[in-house]
Design goal:
The complex is a heterodimer of chains A (665) and B (257). Chain A contains 17 helices and 34 strands. Chain A has 665 residues and is an alpha/beta fold. Chain A has 5 domains: 131 residues, Rossmann fold (3-Layer(aba) Sandwich), CATH 3.40.50; 185 residues, FAD/NAD(P)-binding domain (3-Layer(bba) Sandwich); 80 residues, no CATH class; 161 residues, FAD/NAD(P)-binding domain; 66 residues, Alpha-Beta Plaits (2-Layer Sandwich). In chain A, strands 10-7-6-18-29 form a 5-stranded parallel β-sheet. Chain A has a 5-stranded parallel β-sheet with strand order 20-27-21-22-23. Chain A has a 4-stranded parallel β-sheet with strand order 2-1-3-4, with helices on both faces. In chain A, strand 21, helix 11 and strand 22 form a beta-alpha-beta unit. In chain A, helix 4 runs antiparallel to helix 17, helix 10 packs parallel to helix 11 and helix 11 crosses helix 12. Helices cover 46% and strands 11% of the residues of chain B. In chain B, the strands form 2 sheets. A 4-stranded parallel β-sheet of chain B has the order 2-1-3-4, sandwiched between helices. The radius of gyration of chain B is 18 Å and the shape is globular. Classes of the chains: A alpha/beta (665), B alpha/beta (257). Chains A and B meet through strand 24 of A and loops of B.
């Protein structure tokens, strides 16, 4: 016969002011199985905990119900109490008579009846509880960082500094990311490359960091502490060990008309190329799609001129498989396509995006830092910026969110222009100026007050090609007038979105993305650098639009979480996982389809049905991957799935207890 | 293939040329416009107010007739096309609207089943501009023609689903099919002023003149349109001529009377 103890907490006056604890005790004393009942002003206090511990020992209780606040508050506390009294911690149930009862009702009489009902249901459940034991898993002391921009670089450095091995995987031939493309950075105007390249070099020279450029994640399996990733190392056609980065090959390459991605397509590159001068590793890659040797079999000039003999056309893609304890997603952003924004006339060469402007104003960019119109090479007399192109746009073509960085980089661009060319008129159309951040608003005001940039609150309806200039029709909302402006160049602050490839990556990781394809954090406020999938952490714009300081901060935070995880030798798993009754399962696959964590697989299992032994295709739950969401239990048509700690029978018992109560009344 | 056809009031009066050319060209191209019986004025854009229901009944009647005939409903006037298309969309997507309409008269219960096409869409999607260009007898070679779209064919773009609302090409493609040269002037989809010409004529004139100046800057000889109201506002400025697109169509097909 089970012996259940029931403990009613007053929570000071939080519960007691509404719920009559004496009446609850009186009601539940008569329930089958209840061997002990007590009340106390603060069960979570030391004295309350001692009361429970003593009651368990003295009465040899084999299950307890604590009627108190939400299990989110103190379930863990009371489980520890049970454990220290020698009771399995999963023999504890919480009846939430605070949030679900006393806080939300005024009528003490009805609240007391409800408190009894909730407690009775918890008693009905705990009678069916079974001891559960967490599994122990070892932790692989190695981290995988996906994305070699500033977020990935910072996370890798911080993790490596704590003494753990890190693999930093980047799809392009060099680490550096978007920050490498930028000219200056706000609000200090220091040169982006000057602050980024030392970090890139630190990464490359760190003995704990292994950089895999020109590489892609193919497959990720496993779970927190024990991920296995397969990484495709794309064939570079250049031997990393032999190449000295001298540049003979790319200087001689005859294919010279490939749009240069690093210069946003504003200049051309060769088929064998490094993305930019400070690329790391300083080893070129052959773009096989455009290389004559790969297309026709002829040429091979690069091989001829390469003195160390590093060029190898025979190289094939290689696959590396490695185990990791933790993963950081730092895949960054890209700017949206402007095909649906015809009103801005982006097909005109003098209408450019802000990213293109970064390259134009950059000393190593396509114009050598000369600010000229791409149509005729003329220096513009006036430049107009348009903000929020595709951002804060709730129509089907745009993004509903604020891209966050545009107000500040547009202020930066305007200062860069005015500083070099004070005679150029600069106008900025904006919806709202959003410049929170240390020294940010001061920076934006400098552009207006010291540099004479004209800010126009309003939007632009159309940019028109008038032959030798552009005409803008817009609106000035402060003066409430329609504006017609002549300008020589238009710069569009284009919305940013997560990098392509984030969707398949998220699905490989069983990590969730939001409606805008940004990675979802586990809790918007309290767990902002963790993904809901244990062991997967987030850094940078993959999680949402961010500027450099915020990205670096988040990367450090993600690294700290990784270090905290890798510092453990053993991880205890949550034992409240799904389990299959192999005699009821018919292998229909529904549970596998709904499982968000990829925890369910199918395979032949020996089934013994009344002595009749067969081999059947049966669902199998990987206890280490299962997070106990219960989706499979709901989906299972034959009732074969059960969630340990929340079995169908336990839930049914709770419902029965509630319904019986109501039918009595 | 034959189509049900909703002319609208203006096509029987001021814009008779828009209809006459369309009917003659249709015959030459092998299709017929079958005017639906007892059609009523669509009310131009005024019935599109959110709470206007009775005013949308004429559109519902026309749409229902086309649905019963199981033929697409073709229009010529931009305003009629706009109203019919939007009422049709509302009937398909808005249950409250459907229920309200059905309460006027059970016979009017309508679920948005008709297809509304503009004559230009028939040329593009049923005849095909390539085929059209093969049927041209007197090509408009060397004529520099500006397409003037106005607003009502294009927006709201999700409902009208006519062409790219910012950089439409259908009328330019039409001009090229007839052998003419399409002048791609930036203001070709800007507003002519529409009905504001009744309350603020100066404003309508200003807007119309801006469009005309833009087209003239790029040496357009004349403009073509599908909208009687655009034609009215533009014509009043006495600058460039403006014709209905069906007028140059019948000329190119050599079916003009």
């Amino acid at each position: 016969m089970e012996k259940i103890g029931v403990f009613i907490c007053h929570c000071g006056s939080n519960i007691k002011a509404t719920v009559d604890a004496d009446a609850v005790i009186k009601e539940i004393r008569g329930i089958t199985g209840v061997a002990f009942a007590a009340q106390y002003p603060y069960m979570c206090a030391k004295a309350g905990q001692s009361l429970i511990e003593a009651a368990i020992r003295d009465n040899s209780l084999d299950g307890i119900v604590v009627a108190a606040c939400s299990p989110r508050m103190h379930e863990a506390t009371f489980r520890k109490v049970a454990e220290s009294a020698g009771l399995n911690p999963y023999m504890v149930e919480i009846a939430n008579i605070r949030e679900h009862c006393s806080w939300i009702h005024r009528d003490g009489g009805e609240a007391t009846v409800k408190a009894v009902e909730l407690t009775r249901a918890a008693i009905a459940k705990v009678r069916l509880n079974a001891p559960l034991f967490p599994e122990e898993n070892s932790v692989v002391k190695r981290a995988l960082v996906i994305g070699g921009g500033i977020a990935g670089i910072q996370a890798a450095l911080d993790i490596a500094e704590a003494g753990f091995e890190v693999d930093l995987v980047e799809t392009t031939p060099s680490i550096g990311g978007k920050m490498a493309q930028l000219d200056k950075t706000f609000p200090t105007l220091d040169c982006s490359a000057c602050i980024l390249t030392p970090k890139m070099v630190d990464c490359a020279s760190h003995d704990k960091i292994n950089i895999l450029t020109y590489s892609q994640i193919e497959k990720i399996e496993g779970f927190v502490g024990n991920f296995t990733a397969t990484i495709r190392k794309k064939a570079r056609s250049v031997c990393m060990e032999k190449c000295t980065g001298c540049g003979d090959c790319w200087n001689k390459c005859p294919v010279k008309k490939i749009p240069d991605e690093f210069n946003t397509g504003l200049s051309n590159r060769t088929a064998i190329y490094i993305p930019f001068a400070q690329a790391l590793p300083l080893v070129p890659a052959i773009d096989r799609e455009h290389c004559i040797k790969f297309k026709t079999g002829k040429c091979g000039l690069c091989q001829t001129v390469c003195q160390p003999g590093a060029i190898d056309f025979e190289l094939q893609d290689e696959f590396a498989t490695e185990k990791y304890g933790a993963i950081v997603v730092a895949t960054g952003f890209e700017v949206i396509e402007l095909g649906k924004f015809g009103e801005f006339g982006y097909d005109n060469p003098d209408v450019i995006t802000s990213m293109e402007f970064e390259r134009i104003t950059h000393g190593a960019g396509p114009t050598g830092g000369e600010l000229v119109r791409l149509s005729d090479g003329r220096k513009p007399k006036s430049i107009t910026f348009i903000q929020c192109v595709g951002s804060r746009d709730i129509t089907e073509r745009g993004k509903p969110y604020c891209s966050k960085i545009c107000c500040m980089y547009t202020a930066k661009h305007s200062i860069l222009i005015k500083d070099k060319y004070p005679d150029i008129d600069v106008n900025i159309f904006y919806i709202d100026m959003r410049t929170p951040g240390k020294a940010y608003d001061e920076f934006y005001r400098r552009s207006e007050e010291d540099f004479g940039v004209r800010y126009i609150k309003g939007q632009v309806g159309r940019v028109m090609d008038m032959g030798d200039h552009l005409a803008i029709s817009g609106v000035d909302l402060l003066d409430n007038v329609k504006l017609e402006l002549k300008t020589d160049m238009v710069i569009l602050a284009t919305a940013i979105q997560p990098a392509t490839g984030i969707k398949p990556l998220a699905s490989m990781l069983s990590a969730s993305i939001d409606t805008n394809n940004f990675m979802t954090e586990a809790h918007a406020k309290l767990r902002p650098v963790e993904s809901p999938t244990a062991g997967v952490f987030l850094a940078g714009a993959a999680q949402g639009p961010k500027d450099i300081p915020e990205t670096v901060g988040q990367a450090g935070a993600a690294a700290a979480k990784v270090i905290g995880l890798l510092a453990k030798d053993i991880l205890l798993s949550n034992p409240c996982t799904a389990t299959v009754d192999i005699n009821s399962c018919n292998g229909c696959s529904l549970c596998g389809l709904v499982c968000p964590y990829g925890a369910i697989s199918y395979g032949p299992t020996k089934v013994d049905e009344f002595g009749y032994k067969t081999l059947e295709r049966i669902s199998h739950v990987n206890q280490a991957l299962c997070l106990g969401c219960g989706a499979c239990v709901v989906a299972c048509p034959s009732g074969a799935m059960n969630l340990l700690g929340y079995t169908n029978l336990q839930l049914q018992a709770e419902v029965d207890a509630l319904c019986l109560m109501n039918s009595d009344r | 293939m034959n189509f049900d056809y909703y002319p609208g009031c203006t096509l029987k009066t001021k814009a008779a040329g828009l209809e006459a050319g369309a009917r003659r060209a249709a015959r030459a191209l092998g299709f017929e416009l079958c005017e639906i019986a007892d059609w009523q004025c669509c009310g131009a854009v005024y019935p599109l107010g959110k709470d206007a229901h009775a005013e949308k009944l004429p559109s519902i009647r026309a749409l229902k007739a086309a649905e019963n005939a199981a033929r697409p409903l073709v229009t010529l006037c931009s305003a009629c096309h706009h109203v019919l298309k939007r009422v049709n969309d509302d009937a398909a997507k808005n249950k409250d609207f459907r229920d309200t309409i059905a309460r006027y008269d059970e016979d009017l219960a309508y679920g948005g089943g008709a297809t509304v096409l503009h004559y230009l869409e028939v040329l593009r999607d049923f005849v095909g501009f390539e085929e059209l260009s093969r049927r041209v007898v007197k090509p408009l070679t060397g004529r520099k023609i500006g397409a003037y779209y106005g607003c009502m064919l294009l927006r709201p773009s999700v409902v009208m689903a006519f062409d790219d609302p910012e950089n439409p090409t259908i009328i330019e493609d039409f001009i090229r099919a007839l052998g003419g040269e399409a002048v791609n002037y930036p203001l070709r989809a800007e507003c002519c002023g529409g009905y504001i010409s009744l309350s603020n004529e100066a404003k309508a004139n200003e807007l119309s003149r801006k469009i005309l100046a833009d087209a003239a800057r790029l040496d357009a000889e004349f403009l073509i349109t599908a909208c009687p109201l655009c034609a009215y506002n533009i014509r009043k400025q006495n600058q460039l001529p403006i014709y209905y697109f069906t007028e140059i169509l019948e000329e190119a097909l050599d079916v003009k009377l």
